[in-house]
Amino acid sequence: MKAMRYILGGLCLVLTLNTTVFAQIESQGFNPDSIYEQRQINQMDSLLYQWYIQQPNEDNSLVADIEGDTIEGPELPDSFYIKRLQTINSLIDLPYNNIVRSFIKAYTEKKRDKVEVMLGLTDYYFPMIEEILDMYQLPQELRFLPVIESALNPRAVSRAGATGLWQFMYGTGRMYNLTINSFIDERRDPLAATHAACRFLKDLYSIYGDWTLVIAAYNCGPGNVNKAIRRSGGKRNYWDIYYHLPRETRGYVPAFIAANYTYYFYKEHNLQPKPITLPPATDTIIVNNMLHLQQIAEVLDYPIELLRDLNPQYKIDIIPAKGKSFVLRLPKEMVGPFLDREKEIYAYKDSIFFNQKILANPSKYTASYQHEVPPGSIRIVYRVKKGDVLGSIAQRYNVSVRQLKGWNNLHRDLIRENQRLVIYVPERTATRLGIVQEKKS
Fold first, then answer.
1. 53-89 tens-digit pLDDT
2. What pTM value is reported for the model?
3. Is the pLDDT of residue 433 over 80?
4. Which fold would CATH assign to domain 378-433?
5. What are the structural domain ranges in the chain?
6. Which CATH number is associated with domain 2-269?
7. Which candidate in 86, 317, 329, 433 could, as Cys together with 293 as Cys, close a disulfide (CB 3.0–4.6 Å)?
8. 191, 132 Cβ separation under 8 angstroms
């Protein structure tokens, strides 16, 4: 019943525009060109700039003019935007105010080139996202979240380390069963990440029962939304808790509303979706043996860049199908040729692509904690004692803290009593300490 009241209240907000709340926001001195809102818009710029760099185009003017794309259009009255938003058949509230207006104008006037690229990418990404949203019985409007999260760039990485279309942090990705290792980062896999995002969104909705709050919580985390609710005296309307949210999140819901508006009414603003190089029709093949994308590219004479775009989860171009099967996505017209020449592809330059030195040191290609074992060192297993810290243990055995963390796959300096640590002690230090054990090279 409470959820129904929120929904009905949200509908009234769309139809009546809740002028009291919006007037309160304006009275508190919100500037449409504020630094917080500009930061949100600039984030879209930087993510799209990444996309251009990774997707070279014959027309490089898009890159050259990325900062000079301000286009002023005719000034439309608020009533136009209000009527258009009301015609969108949306389960999620799409209210209008001066904050939303500023984002709509940014998308339709100031950032036209970038928006046209995103509109082109929706032809490839939206069908797969919509299918998965339907599978989880979630509102289709949520497909706009990866638009404002990553500008539909599966390789997008934020300064904080959030990665992929849905911008998962490492911990959240692992919590929702995304594989992340030296070879694979499923946060960059559009399908796997969308499944994980849907599970996350369902969990958030079970907490709030309100999609606008869910969208805010997706950006800043449920902890921050809960704090904002408490600080507002228990209010559960997004606009009531607006100034209690983190600054970066304040522009998130308005950007979501503006993305919806722009998608449905881009023609009215003379925006043209940019053509993209991704194939419209693709299919998948199960890979059961180690395979390098370059083997496919050279045997089938297909651009390696496009194979990477279709399979962005493989960080160093290797599908590590060793005792486990993985999925390879190919353009539909390439599936037949791949199957016909499958043995040839697997055998092509396999001794070069799977050189043991390369496979033994994936940290050459990735930011990994792994460290090589120094030649002549002696392997011991050390049991952590009360009062031990990594620095003192490293000093005792003449190794670095970074090596200790790498050998034991530690991502923090925290260790606990009785924990076992693998240490490769230099031979001279082992002799001095009287350690005798089989040498590992």
1. 343 333 322 222 322 333 344 578 889 999 999 999 9
2. 0.66
3. yes
4. Membrane-bound Lytic Murein Transglycosylase D; Chain A (3.10.350)
5. 2-269, 282-355, 378-433
6. 1.10.530.10
7. 317
8. yes
